[in-house]
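quick one, three chains, predict together pls
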Amino acid sequence: MKRRDFFKTLTSAVAVGAALPVMSFAAETKKHAGPNAFSYEQALEAITGGKEPKKSSRAHLKVPEIAENGAVVPVTIEVDSPMTADDYVKAIHIFATKNNNVRCIDAHLTPANGKAMLATRIKLGGTQEVAALVELSNGEFLVAAQSVKVTIGGCG
Amino acid sequence: MKTLVSITLSAAILTSALIAGEQFAMSDKDRAMYAELLEANPADIMVAHGEELFEEIGSDAALAKFLDVSEDDLPKYIAGFPRYVEKLKIVSGLGQVIQALQASQGLKPSKLDSHDSADMLAYVKSLANDEKINIDINANSHMKAAYALGKEVFETKRGGRGLACLSCHSTDIVGGVLRTQPLPDLGSVKAAATWPAYRMTKSKMFTLQGRMQQCMHAALLAKIPKGSKEMVALEVYVTTMSQGKTIQIPGLKR
Amino acid sequence: MGKMQSLIKIKPKKFKDGEIVKVNFMVMHPMETGMRKDKKTGKIVPAHYINNIKFEYNGKVITNMTVWESVSANPVFTTYMKINGKGKLIVTFTDNKGGSYEKSKKIKPKG
C-alpha cells in the first residue's frame, strides 16, 4: 500500500468513524415516531397530572458523567425514606430525556421493599440528561437529573 | 516501508490522543460505577448455563479424572492453561479439553465457535476464580515452542493495514488513545485473568480467543481459527503477560 | 409459560429473618427497540423487549415494574426486599410479543 494512501485512510477512518454512529442514530430517531415516542415533558405530565415535582436532596441519582459506551449505562436511584405503610416511596421512574422513547422504567414499590432503591442499565442514543421522578405515598413528587456524556469509539 | 508504517501509525495515534484523549477520560468515580456492575454481570447467566451443560458430561469430577488431577487440585491446574495435555498430545486451551471430554463420552464435541462451548469454558475457568495464573512455558519443549510461535504471531505485521498485535499493544504505544479508547497493556489489564468477559457494546460474552479474533477483524487481519496451533500459541503468549494475576471471571468490558 | 434464561441473585447469601436484602434479577433478552437496522438484510429488526416484571413473595406483590425498550440488552434490575419468613420469591415477566415467563428462588433466612 502506498504510504500516502495509508495515512489518508487511517486519519479519515479516525475522524469519520467517530462521527458516523451519532449521525445515523439521530437520523433514525427523527424518522421513527413510534407509539412510544413521548417528549420528556409529556411523560412527566402523564405521571404527575400536572403537579410540580420538587428537586430534593432526598433523591440520590447516580449515573456516570462520562459513559464509556451508550449500550450499557448504569443508573441508580436511592431515596431517603422509612418505607413504612404511612410513609414510603410509591414509584421511581427513570427517563432518558433525548431518547426516541424517553421512558426507561417505572418501578412501583411497596413498604415490603424495605429500602427505596432502583438500579438498572439503560441505552443512551447520545449525550443527554438522565432524570429520575420519585412518587411518594403522600402524593408528593421529587425529581433529580444529571447530564451523561456518551462516548463513541473503540476499535470494534 | 515497515518503519514508515509504524511512524505513520504512531503519528495518527498521537494526533488522535491530542484531540480526543483529555475530553473523554473517565473519572475514578465513573470507573467505580462500572466496577459495581460486576456484582450482577449478564455473563453470570452464561456461566450458570455452562454449569448446567457441564453437569451433563459429569461436571468437575469427570474433568478432574480426565486430566489426571484430584478435584482439590483442579482449580490451580485450570489456572495454568493453556497446557500441554499428554492425553491429547498437543498444547491445548480449555475449549479443546472440553471437546475431548465430550468425545471421550461418545458425545458430539461442541464447536469452539458455539455459545455452548464458550459457556462451558467460562464455567470451567470460573472454578479457578481467586487462583493466580500459573502458566509454565518451560514445562516441556511443546510449551516452549508454543510460546515462541505465539510471540511470532503477536509480532507479525499482516493484513490490509500492515498491522500486528504489537502495533497497538506494545509498551511504547500503550496509553495512547485510538478512537477515544486508551490502548491497553494486556498485562496491566489482566487480559488472561478477566476473559471470558461480557462485552457491553456487543451484548455478548466472548472467550479470550474470541476477543482476539474480534480485534483481528477490526485491524483488518485475517481471523485465526479458534483452537488452531497459532491461536493456542497466541493465547499462551498473551497469558504469560498476566502471570501471577488473580483470575476473576466473567469480566465486564466495553 | 415459556422458558427464558434468567437468574435471581440475593446479597448477602446468608441473612436473618427481617433483614433487608439486595435482589438482582437478570435475564437474557435482546431488548430490541424496533429502530435498529439489521446490517445483513437492511431491514428494521422488530421491537422485542421485556415490558413488565412482577416480584412476588409468598403470594404478596413486592415490586411491579413497567419496562421500556430503552433498557439495555440482557438487562439487570436491582431492588431491595425485606425478608419476612421463609418462602419462595417468584418473578413473572412478559415481553411485547406476548411472551410470559417465570423464575423463582427458594428463600430461607437463618436466625
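The longest strand of chain B covers residues 83-85.
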